[in-house]
Every structure is written in C-alpha cells, then in structure tokens.
Amino acid sequence: MAQDRLPSSSISQLLLTAMLFLSCSTVLAGARHLVEEPLPKIPELPKPELHPLPDLPKPELPTLPKTELPPLPEIPTLPKPELPTVPKPEMPKLPTLPHLPDLPKPTVPTIPTLPKDIPMIPTHSSNNP
Predict the structure, then answer these.
(1) Which parts of the sequence are annotated with region: Disordered (predicted)?
(2) Is-above-0.90 flag for pTM?
(3) Rounded CA gap, 34 and 28, in Å?
C-alpha cells in the first residue's frame, strides 16, 4: 500500500507542469485579444513650410600654375654578363647485365561456370513434423 502513493517530487513536477500550461493559455488569450482589436487612427501632422534658400554666388577657384618636372636622369645600361662554358663531364659506362633465360608463364586455372538450369532444392516448412 505504501507503494501506491506518488513521491513528493512527482507531485511537485505535476504541479509545476500544470502552472506552466495555465500561464501559456493566458498569454495566448491576451495575444488573441490584441490581434482582434482595431488599430487607433493616427492624426496627420501638417507639413511645415520651409523658407526658400537664397541664391548663393558660386565661388571661383584660383588657377594654379602648372609645374614642370625636371627630366629624369638616364640610367646607364649594363652589358650582358657572359657565362663561362663548362665542359660536359663524361660518365663511366654502366656494366651490362647478364642475359637471363626466359621463364615459362604460369597457367591460371579456369573457374568453372554454373549451369543455367539449376534444379530447386525443396525446403522444409515449419508446419510439417
């Protein structure tokens, strides 16, 4: 009989869940009322009148004298360097390998093919003893 009672932590969890469900339903109901209400009309403000701006004279920029740059100094050209010729080194000849006799090629065994008409093997069913 003592096992039929719920522990106190289960009761508190159930109570917390019920409270959360009730608070969610009240928030949703409040949001529904906000959607259903019409928006208030906003009065239009009169447009302010601006005074016309006076015509301002365009400023004249002074002309600057054009400066001439002195010519760039000429850079002397360097002669092309000549590389010395290097003699080609002679490599010693490699010794020749002795001739090996030709080995016979191994034969690969053939894989037998299955016949196309294979008889079906009867299977045992679970109903037969």
Answers:
(1) 40-129
(2) no
(3) 10
Task: Please name which of 12, 31, 8 lies closest in space to residue 20, comparing C-alpha atoms.
Answer: 12
3-class state of residue 15 by DSSP: helix
Please give the Cα distance from 85 to 13 (Å, whole number): 96
Distance CA 64, CA 69 (A): 15
- Positive or negative, the CA dihedral 36, 37, 38, 42 is negative
Provide the terminal-to-terminal Cα distance of the chain, rounded to the nearest Å: 51
> Per residue of the chain (129 residues), what is the pLDDT tens digit?
455 565 667 888 888 888 877 776 666 676 667 767 777 888 888 888 888 888 888 888 888 888 888 898 888 898 998 988 989 889 888 888 888 888 888 888 888 888 788 777 777 665 555
